[in-house]
Amino acid sequence: MTSGVRTSILGLVFAALLGVLVLRLWTMQVTDAEAYETRALHNQVRIVPTPAPRGDIFDANMVKLAGTRSALAAVVDLALVENGELEMLSRNLAAFLDEDSASILDDLENARGPQVTVARDLTEYQATFLAEHRETFPGVNIVPQPIRVYPLGEVGAHVLGYIGRPTAEDLERENVNGNTNVGKAGVEAFYDEQLLGTEGLVQYQVDAERKVLSLAAEEAPTAGGSLVLTIDIEAQAQLQQSLKDGLLLARSDEMEQRASELAKQSIAERLVEAQIEAEEQARQDAIADASTAEESSATDPGVDDDDVVLDPEPVKVDPATVLASLYPGLPIDSNGVCVPVQRVTVPLGGDASLSGVDPRFIRLDSIADTDGTLFATFTIGQEKFTVKDNQSFASTLQVLEVQEDKVILYHLDKWCPVRAVGTVLDPTDGSVIAMASYPSYDPTAFVDGLSDDQWAELSTVSAFQNFAVQGLYAPASTFKTVPYVLAMEENYYPMDRGLGDKQLVDDEQEGLPSVPLTSDTDEYNCSGEFKFELNDGTTQTKRDWLSRGHGGLDLHGALVESCDLYFWDIALRLWEERKDDSGLDKENLLQKYARDFGFGTASGIDLPFERDGLVPDRAWFQAEQSADSPRVRPDGPWVGGDLMDIAVGQGAMLTTPLQMANGYAAMVNGGTLFEPRVVSHIVDSEGNTIETLPTTIVREIDISPRTVQWLRADLQRVVNDLGSADKYGGTGKSAFYDSRGTNIFGEGVETIGGKTGTGEVIKSPGSEAFREVDNAWFIGVAPINNPEFVVSIVVERGGSGGRVAAPIARQVLQYLMNGPEGVTELRAGLDAD
Amino acid sequence: MAIDYRDTKPISFMHREAPLKPDLILVLTYIVITAFGLLMIYSATAPGLESRGLDPTGELKEQAIFVVIGFIVFGIVSWMDLTEIRGFTTPIYFVSVLLLVLVFLVGESGRGDVAVRWIDIGFLRFQPSEVAKVAVILALASLLAAVEPPLRWITIAKSLLIVGLPAGLIFLQPDLGTMLVFAFVLIAMLFVGGATARQLAFLAVATIIATVGVFQLNLIRDYQINRLTAFVDPGAHELTLSYNQIQSEIAIGSGGMFGKGLFEGSQTNLQFVPVQSSDFIFTAVGEQFGFVGSAVVIALIGIMLWRLLMIAQRARNRFGYLVTMGVAAMLAFHVFINIGMTVRIMPVTGLPLPFMSSGGTFFVVMSAALGLAHSSWIRRPPAPGEGPTT
After folding, report:
1. If you ran DSSP here, which 8-state letter would residue A775 be given?
2. Quick check: A18 and B188 CB within 8 A?
3. Percent of chain B at pLDDT above 70?
């Protein structure tokens, strides 16, 4: 190869290299030029979304419940901060804003977008200072940002909901970026799309250092729509006040009951009695064991039976178990009134005091890590306990979390009234006039983010949840209107059990009645105890809430006095005739009526997280059983007793307070089941209606006007029938009339109807009042002849419906019917189902 | 075409055999590229300087001084006799090696650069590695000119030593780009110098092994690896490592067929391309003058390379031939690596674009190198028909 050839070869290599460059330039500058032009264009402009003002929320009378105010926020533009500067920046910000530097750094490092809001509501001085010290706070921009305000605080909180930082999922939505707050609960969440509005855009011409050179283009944001609620905020405020007062009344009432119980017999006496009882029991058990042993050893001749000495082990009774709600170690507040739960933090090696009538000290001795699980050892008095997460101990304590250097405990009183929930519904169109759950919260607290302490305090009592739609409760006797309507509509009454002289001996087979009552006015023997035989041959006994019995009652009297037997018997008859040839599916007839009135299905209200409730039946029961659900017994079939439980709203039956109100609304308005709603229409910033949310009818239930007339009349008697020497009268009367029969409601008490309910939470085998825990219900209807309001009240662990729930409903009804001046003082009624 | 492989005797100024005529095409191309380069430097630096309240012509003026120095150096070297220069090969080589050692003792980093490449001698700062490029070309040419092809293995070994010493020092700076230039120039010169196929194969294998070894032994600093991996996957390093390359690509691509026009380039005016006036000067061409402008610049470089090959062919002796080929190889490789980097077909190595990039030492050194080749042309043996002038 000559040098000339080699020169040429190298020349070709040069040509090839240059050729490659030209080809590459061709593809970039000719073929793909457009794509690069777009990218160059994007390079030069910085697009900053301008947040749309979130829509306001008004009540039915256009009182502002939620609004937006403009504030100055400090936003870090991460593109302007060098990586190494982040720590310095967060330190400086923390020092200036008096916040935690680690959490600011965490926010910056784990940012979901290029811009991070580090402070939402700066004072003018703070804003100026930050803007003027760019070298100390690199990348910090001061931008106007809207802040949500809820001028009325806690009033309406559960309906309004609250807003908060968007989740990763939210960021996928249109008009949501890392700095947009989105609705998290209530109508803020349900109508988030409508409230958000459309983001605007500002395009800036920028250079490579992202320095803004000029304004390139601007697209103004469109404000979100404003919601107009069906809520009347004045009624709402009254409802919340009544719920709060009612719950506190229930608690102090609970304390009084405990005190009067202790007045009958002291703690010491009870403990001695329990000790004697337990020893006696132990002795008998030992004898039983010994005789069993004797029997089994009889075949063994080598043992001398006569020398068996009965020496039972020493018996110890647990005071907390024996005394139940009378136990002096249960938590109390500063007023000496019970509280359902207190959070206690015990530092390692330190003490904490446990409140109570008889306060105790708890000491956290040590924390040990065993196979990754932390165990804490406590000393209370002389006793030592070693416990881990979720474990209960020392009768009233439950471990929430064992941490490295401390333990957080719940100090619990499972008898103390915990919550009051209420709903006011307009039965003519399903509009919610008021809805609340207490304990509550101030949604404004979410604007700046709740502190850990605030969060812990509120979440311990589930204050963020709207129990009117999220709480599930056994409806108890308030549900009796459903079998009542069934009886009226189907002409289906219980078996005649005789009256007076005719009273039958229940447990004698031949004596059992075989003829049903034929009309709603036929009298039924409503005694205090109900014995019945099931298909499997066993006899069961159920007791009425009024142990002395009600005497003879027709269907109407049975509802007024809330006679359990009448409705049990309807269910029992349905059960026994379930296989007859009437063509009716009697086994599921009661459930069908319940479902028609909206039970077992979410009402469809425009609020998030609504629950379905449950109307149990055989199919459900079997499905649960095969899934090993703890909600049903592990074996045995669906029986008549289950159906009887449903008839009085017990067993597995569950409803929300809203469902209950809505079901009653349908019964008293003639059979129209509405979809409840809290928003009536959406308006723009000038007040023009953008969208009207129509009244929606779920179904028309075919019930006769006669049934409706009778039901209204009977509900009216629940409140207004004062009874007589041998008749108890209406179970709700004591909230509306004092013991002398004087009207405490005020004008128009005769237009009020209602129904009480007492849902068992913890059954007491010995029927000792201080062991029982009941949910108290009251459903009020007014005015009864042309209903405009249905009020449903639940006091969780409140005791009997007549005692605490009815008085709360009475105040709300007083407000609704007679205005704020009509509201009179809250006081406990009588125990009545 | 006959080439005299024997080392001819030095011919004095007075005894030239061909007319002392410059290669007008080469000189013209050199001036046009340089002038265009100055314009590009101005367009790339003026907006940034202006926005900082500085003289927009600041960098242009600075570069213009070096251009003048470069032109003078080019003229002087052109008129010097290559054969005389050959006598200074050894001192030039060792002085440049000494300067490279000096970098470690008194060297400084350039702005935004982690490598130490500069020596500040009061009135100017220069990069010894640039000087070393020319020294190595001279030393290699001198070595290879003394032997006849086919080359013996001992010559290969010597040439590796000659390149290895400065390359090793540069590698320690570190300056990967310059090292690659050395490797390419070495292979090109050995190729035209008459290395056998086996020797070339050996060099190719050795280069591969050396490259792999350098990576395996972690001899490369992290930033060098980052630059290389960012080139492979720019998306992963957006806004950080390959930010330069992405912005550079956008600038060139968005130029389109005819470009956005002088001083109309948004990428250039808004300084999206870092170190645009030096390493990324080609983006200013691509954005403002589009494919047409880019192709013209590459064509000018092509013409320059074509002239260098012609000069080599007409060289009076083997030394002149080898020096010219070495200069051509260095120029071609610089251009390919640099423009390749701006269009993202090569990794970022920090090699400037000859005659256009802002940077004093480099311009002067490249002018000197071009002068060496030009000197070979001026003293070429007469072509048929070309009579002696004296």
Report:
1. E
2. no
3. 81
